[in-house]
Amino acid sequence: MRFASRIILALILVLSLGLMVFSSLRESAIMDELAHIPAGYSYLNSLDYHLNPEHPPLVKMAAGLPLLFLNLNFPTDTPAWSEKVNGQWDVGYEFLYQSGNDADQIIQWARTGPMVLTLILIIFVYIWSKELMGEWWALLPSVGVALSPHFLAHGHYVTTDIGAALGIVISIYYFNRYLISPNKKSLIIAGIAFGIAQLTKFSALILIGHMLLMAIIYALIRFNKSQHEFKHAFALVFTYLRRLFLIFIIGVLVIYPLYAIGSINYSPEKQLSDTQAIIGTDFENPPLSYLADATVWLSDKPILRPYAQYSLGMLMVLKRANWGNTLYFMGDVDRTGGPGYFPIIYALKETLPMLILAGLGIIFALFGMVRALFKRTPTLREYLDTNLHEFSAMLFVSIYVLYSLTSPLNIGLRHLIPILPLIYILATGVLRKHAQKDEYKKQLRSAMVVFLFVWQGAIALTAFPHYLPYFNDLVGTDNGWRYATDSNYDWGQDLKRLATFVEENNIQKIGVNYFGGGYPPYYMGDKAVPWYSNFGNPLESGIEWMAISVNELQNSIAPTAPGFTRDIESEYRWLKNPTSPDFRVGESIFVYKLSD
């Protein structure tokens, strides 16, 4: 039985990998890859971390590692590298498209790193689920992740979201194991896992609050008030917090080596000047001003300056989160976002079977809680003794959701990816638990749960290869751009398809307003003419075709939210029917035939 379940898991992994690979081969670089790929390569090849300090290095280094085996030209002799402060976008263009390299070769090999991390995530979901519900049921959440359009999309891009999901899952898992068996070995492993999580994405800092709450709760339920004075409760809490502090210290030590690699050829003088330029005057008020001052002070200190780079990344994320991001969402263009963003995006982009699974899981979980409340059994201590993994995952999901609802940085469902595996595990576990009460109900609910995951697999196959713009059947992928863009729909993935369209239709000139990490002239030569709304109608310059990325289009023509302004010349008023293109390339590029 064990062998059979592992064979099935292996087949799931192969299928997931195949879908990611063949989807990736059809796509151009997405926006963030233009910065992340050269950054990861430079950390390992040049041992210099001055590109893209806004994100931790693990995923970027995983992407850069395969590139070390290619004979590549890296533009270290250009001002973008040697003089600019974090000239990541310029270096990206020069590295991929202007240095004599094969851009597609670089992109595809770099993406193998994130794909491997995605497969490891699927395996960890299986390992965690197996402890909760057995080997066969554990296959279901694994399928949920492996064949989710969101994991298949972001799993083959050089971005940090899948890495964050992996780091958070393993950190919570091994911290739970430490609480269950608090020995030196489990403490060290929990610390290493926490450190790995911090190397994936700065949102993993939420784990600190989660672990603090878990340690306090777990300490208090171990206290028996009938046998001890309450002062012993505080002593017990202090003991757990002291041990948690050791876990954090181990995590801080784990962070150091990857940042230290990028400090070898990053001169202290340049690191100091770069840090001062990036921080500027944006952090003048306590307590962030103290962190900013400490970051600047550390940035040229031997031994310690890798931590300055980590701290700088945190500050950059905080700055961007406070500033927000210009986006199109539900009919408006705005910068501020709002608490309704993630619930709506989740409802529209998560697959229907996983929405149903999550909904049923919540219903049965609430039913079980109410029943236990009336029966006054089990006690909280008894519950945690047998359901620690479940409680810990629910607590983290709750904290993460509350954080997301209050964050103004609303740029895509991808920011919810770290909690989706936990939701799949929790919902499946709850339904399995309730399916054991009655034989008939057991068979019925088991069949229903299996059906939901088979449905998930069918979606993965039918959505291929357009995973990034996937919207569920409530609105449909073809109409998803009417509700949200950016990383929800258009990240520049269809540029290679546009080049094929131009060639097949024998187009000699086409105006292009492109959003993404690709470079139109690289794929289309002088046929692609950069063109924007304020240039006027390209037909007047003898160009009969116009291609616009839907993200650029919506940001140009959709109504603006109150308080947000836009230049009237950027609104494509010379385009007759901007929302009704003559052709669509992939899902994200609209093409217009300007002449009759």
Automatic annotation (TrEMBL):
It is a multi-pass membrane protein. One of its GO terms (cellular component) is plasma membrane. The keyword Glycoprotein does not apply. It is found in: Cell membrane. GO terms for molecular function: mannosyltransferase activity; pentosyltransferase activity. One of its GO terms (biological process) is lipopolysaccharide biosynthetic process. Residues 110-233 form the Glycosyltransferase RgtA/B/C/D-like domain. Keywords: Cell membrane, Glycosyltransferase, Membrane, Transferase, Transmembrane, Transmembrane helix. InterPro entries: LipidA_mod_glycosyltrf_83, RgtA/B/C-like. Its main location: membrane. The chain crosses the membrane at residues 106-129, 136-152, 158-175, 187-220, 240-261, 351-374, 386-405, 411-432, 444-464. It holds the Pfam family PMT_2. This is Glycosyltransferase RgtA/B/C/D-like domain-containing protein.
